[in-house]
Design brief:
Blueprint: E1 4-9, H1 15-32, E2 40-51, H2 53-57, E3 62-73, E4 76-85, E5 88-101, E6 138-141, H3 156-166, E7 172-177, E8 186-194, E9 197-204, E10 210-215
Antiparallel strand pairs: 1-3, 2-5, 2-7, 3-4, 4-5, 6-8, 7-10, 8-9, 9-10
Helix pairs in contact: 1-3
Length: 216
C-alpha cells in the first residue's frame, strides 16, 4: 500500500488536533482502498508519538500528514505517520491497531494489506510497562464531546488530561489502551513525575478497570 498524504487546517497548535488528524488520515486511506468498517472495528491499542521542537517553535496554519501501514502480526497491524509543516517534520508516530469482529467482539486476523509495506522510518519500540502507582489522584468524567465519530473515546482525551497536569511541552508519549471508557464514567488518574519523566495510570474508582497507561 502506498504512502497516503492529506493536508489539514491547523490554526490552533493542539496535540489533540494533531492526533485527530493522524487518525482521520489513516481511516481515509483505508476507505480509499475499499476497506470498510461495517463488520470490523479498528481499535488503536498503542501509540508512540514524538514531537519535534518545530512543533512548538514554528508558525504554521496547515499540516500535512503522511501515513502508511508498516507491518502486520496476527491480530495487529502497525501504522507509521510523519506530520510536516512548511516542509519540516514536526511529529513522528507509530500506532498498533487491533481488529475486532463487530458481531462477536473478538479479535480477528488482518490480511487486508498484503506484504508490500512502505516504511517511513525504522520500526520503533511500542512496549510500555504499566504504571501501578496510586499517588496524586485526580479525576475526570467521560463527556459526550469526548466520543469520536467511531463511537470510541477520542485517543487524544488521555493526552489532554496529562497536558493539564504537566503544564509543559511534551516531547514524547507512549500510550497503551487497555479497556474502553464509556459515556458518563468517572476516570481517575494516578501519576508520578521524576526527573523529566512521568508515568500515568487511568482507571475506574473501584479499580476494576484499567483504561490506559501512559508514559511521558
Amino acid at each position: 500500500m502506498e504512502v497516503y498524504t492529506k493536508d489539514y487546517k491547523f490554526k490552533e497548535k493542539s496535540i489533540k488536533k494533531a492526533v485527530e488528524s493522524m487518525v482521520d488520515a489513516a481511516f481515509a486511506q483505508l476507505y480509499a482502498h475499499g476497506i470498510k468498517d461495517d463488520k470490523v472495528a479498528w481499535m488503536i491499542y498503542k501509540w508512540r508519538i514524538d514531537f519535534m521542537d518545530e512543533f512548538y517553535n514554528m508558525d504554521y496554519d496547515t499540516i500535512t500528514v503522511h501515513t502508511t501501514p508498516s507491518g502486520v502480526n496476527r491480530f495487529f497491524s502497525y501504522r507509521q505517520f510523519i506530520v510536516e509543516a512548511s516542509g519540516k517534520s514536526i511529529i513522528k508516530a507509530t500506532c498498533e491497531i487491533i481488529y475486532v469482529d463487530k458481531s462477536s467482539m473478538r479479535p480477528i486476523r488482518t490480511n487486508d494489506f498484503g506484504d508490500d509495506f512502505q516504511k517511513l522510518f525504522d520500526d520503533e519500540d511500542l512496549e510500555l510497562e504499566e504504571y501501578d502507582g496510586k499517588a496524586n489522584i485526580s479525576s475526570f468524567c467521560i463527556k459526550k464531546e469526548y466520543i469520536d465519530s467511531y463511537h470510541h473515546v477520542n485517543n487524544a482525551v488521555y493526552i489532554d488530561e496529562i497536558i493539564k497536569i504537566l503544564n509543559q511541552d511534551i516531547k514524547s508519549i507512549r500510550l497503551k489502551y487497555v479497556k474502553q471508557c464509556l459515556l458518563g464514567e468517572e476516570v481517575e488518574i494516578a501519576y508520578e513525575i521524576n526527573d523529566g519523566e512521568a508515568n500515568f495510570r487511568f482507571f475506574s474508582k473501584d479499580e476494576t478497570k484499567l483504561y490506559a497507561s501512559l508514559k511521558y
